[in-house]
Amino acid sequence: MQASVYRAYGPPDVLQLETVEKPTPKANEIRVRIHAATVNRTDCAMLLAKPFIMRFFTGLFRPRKPILGTDFAGTVEAVGADVTGFKVGDRVFGFDDNGLSSHAEYLTIDTAKGIAAIPENCSYEQATASIEGAHYAYNFINKVQLHPGDKVLVNGASGAIGSAAVQLLKYYGAVVTAVCNTKNIDMAKAIGADRVIDYLREDFTKDDQQYDFVFDAVGKSSFNKCKPLLKPGGTYISSELGWMAQNLFYAVFTPFFSRKKVKFPVPVDIPGSVRLVGKMMAEGKFKPVIDRTYTLAETAEAFRYVLTGEKTGNVVLHITANR
Ligand SMILES: NC(=O)c1ccc[n+]([C@@H]2O[C@H](COP(=O)([O-])OP(=O)(O)OC[C@H]3O[C@@H](n4cnc5c(N)ncnc54)[C@H](OP(=O)(O)O)[C@@H]3O)[C@@H](O)[C@H]2O)c1
Question: Which of 214, 245, 263 is the last residue of a domain?
Answer without folding.
Answer: 263
